[in-house]
């Protein structure tokens, strides 16, 4: 079957299937981690967690002086003893924020379709790795694997494996329960993967602490709400030039923190501010740049693609650093370690950091991407097969959360890295008549199922 016909067939098969409906997912009525606003009142804090992390930071600041926002975020989120992600990681209704896969199974199904669509478009390699960075509770991967399992004839001759990059011991336990039913084992003989198991659908799954530990090979890399939690540096333009925003102890309230400006230029100021910058306040995430470079190098060498889904901008926004606790905005300097800290992703920076090794697509708004992937057709099929009013209403409510421009539809974006040859066909001088049209990239162009 021709690649275009094969891709249309699988899209029609999955979008039109009744699927295995899970129990409806309940979630907070507000949008997940809104894309603007850096204020908000802090919630009441429990004494132990807040005090332990704050005491640690106060001792550090008294010993070394002010620290960068990046260092503050790294401590507050991933400190081995009291970091938010290592100890808490509150995803879901009972946590601090909600993500698209937790809202609707359709989201993960469409991402699964995207991977298979690109796999077909690039000639159906004999094996591919599904690699997710920061997999949360494992919900997205779980939904994708269910789609893979619905297409046994398509993937029967392909060796599929799952590779999760996760630093949080607590979240990796939740992922293992979601994906394998808890049937995992530690992997001491392998210095790269710290845990392994078999998915409920029979695929091997491995856990890593760093993307560099993931084996090379044709892979689809997913980063859903991953880059927004990486540490950022903040800079402010002043009459004396650019100054870095730092975190220090408030001298008037010795057990509280405050923002200050560096007295002079810092190494980060010299390296990360571009001469052509026109904004007065800039946020830069060097760690995101390093990871994108690694992804671009892997895709350039081994093929595959990377799909980034996050809230962000194309080099236009300024101050987006904010915190979330119990689904509400939270002061980023209050009770560190008890709240999620996040900042909008600068997609123009990610594009620049590929250094031309790969082609890029997007950012495109979430509602446009999902519409191109066939979410409307999928919703209609699920509604027709919903047997009760509660499920019917839940499906409509979830769809509204994902697609409404005032909720997630416009503030979340999709961005892709692909090999250059995926978008530009090499010139065939000898047999120009053998050229076949390049397949459109799913999600970034409307796909017709006729």
TrEMBL record:
Q: Which reaction does it catalyse?
A: L-arginyl-[protein] + 2 S-adenosyl-L-methionine = N(omega),N(omega)'-dimethyl-L-arginyl-[protein] + 2 S-adenosyl-L-homocysteine + 2 H(+)
Subcellular location as annotated: Mitochondrion
The entry's cellular-component GO terms read:
mitochondrion
What one GO molecular function would you report for this record? protein-arginine omega-N symmetric methyltransferase activity
Biological process, per Gene Ontology: methylation; mitochondrial respiratory chain complex I assembly
Q: Which Pfam families match?
A: Methyltransf_28 (PF02636)
Q: Which InterPro entries match?
A: NDUFAF7, NDUFAF7_sf, SAM-dependent_MTases_sf
Bias kind Basic residues: ranges? 19-28
Q: What class of enzyme is it?
A: transferase
Q: Which family does it belong to?
A: Belongs to the NDUFAF7 family.
Q: What is the role of this chain?
A: Arginine methyltransferase involved in the assembly or stability of mitochondrial NADH:ubiquinone oxidoreductase complex (complex I). Acts by mediating symmetric dimethylation of 'Arg-118' of NDUFS2 after it assembles into the complex I, stabilizing the early intermediate complex.
Which protein, by its recorded name, is this?
A: Protein arginine methyltransferase NDUFAF7
Q: Which organism is it from?
A: Chunga burmeisteri
Q: Which gene encodes it?
A: Ndufaf7
């Amino acid at each position: 079957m021709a690649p275009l016909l094969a891709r249309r067939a699988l899209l029609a098969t999955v979008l039109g299937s009744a699927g295995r409906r899970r129990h409806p997912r309940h979630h907070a009525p507000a949008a997940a981690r809104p894309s603007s606003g850096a204020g908000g009142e802090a919630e009441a804090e429990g004494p132990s967690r807040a005090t332990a992390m704050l005491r640690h930071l106060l001792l550090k600041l008294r010993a070394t002086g002010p620290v960068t926002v990046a260092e503050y975020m790294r401590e507050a989120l991933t400190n081995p003893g009291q970091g938010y992600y290592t100890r808490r990681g509150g995803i879901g209704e009972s946590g601090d924020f909600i993500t698209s896969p937790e809202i609707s199974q359709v989201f993960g199904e469409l991402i699964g379709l995207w991977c298979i669509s690109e796999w077909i478009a690039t000639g159906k390699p004999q094996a591919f790795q599904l690699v997710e960075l920061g997999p949360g509770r494992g919900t997205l991967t779980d939904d994708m694997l269910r789609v893979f399992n619905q297409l046994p004839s398509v993937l029967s001759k392909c060796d599929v494996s799952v590779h999760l990059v996760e630093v949080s011991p607590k979240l990796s336990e939740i992922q293992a329960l979601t994906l394998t039913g808890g049937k995992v084992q530690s992997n001491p003989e392998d210095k790269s993967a710290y845990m392994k198991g078999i998915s409920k659908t029979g695929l091997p799954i491995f856990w890593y602490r760093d993307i560099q530990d993931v084996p090379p090979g044709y892979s689809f890399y997913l980063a859903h709400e991953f880059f927004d939690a990486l540490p950022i540096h903040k800079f402010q333009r002043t009459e004396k030039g650019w100054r870095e925003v730092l975190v220090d102890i408030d001298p008037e309230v010795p057990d509280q923190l405050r923002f200050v400006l560096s007295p002079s230029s810092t190494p980060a100021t010299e390296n990360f501010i571009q001469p052509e910058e026109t904004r007065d306040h800039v946020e830069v995430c060097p760690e995101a740049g390093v990871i994108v470079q690694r992804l671009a190098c892997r895709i350039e060498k081994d093929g595959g693609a990377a799909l980034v889904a996050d809230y962000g901008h194309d080099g236009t926004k300024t101050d987006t650093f904010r915190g979330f606790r119990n689904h509400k905005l939270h002061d980023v300097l209050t009770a560190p370690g008890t709240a999620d800290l996040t900042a909008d992703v600068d997609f123009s920076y990610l594009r620049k950091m590929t250094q031309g090794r790969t082609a890029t697509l997007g950012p495109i708004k979430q509602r446009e991407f999902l519409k191109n992937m066939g979410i409307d057709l999928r919703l209609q099929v699920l509604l027709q097969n919903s047997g009760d009013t509660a499920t019917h209403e839940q499906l409509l409510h979830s769809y509204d959360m994902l697609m409404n421009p005032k909720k997630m539809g416009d503030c979340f974006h999709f961005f892709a890295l692909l090999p250059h040859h995926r978008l530009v066909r090499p010139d065939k001088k000898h047999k120009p008549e053998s050229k076949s049209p390049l397949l459109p990239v799913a999600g970034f162009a409307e796909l017709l199922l006729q």
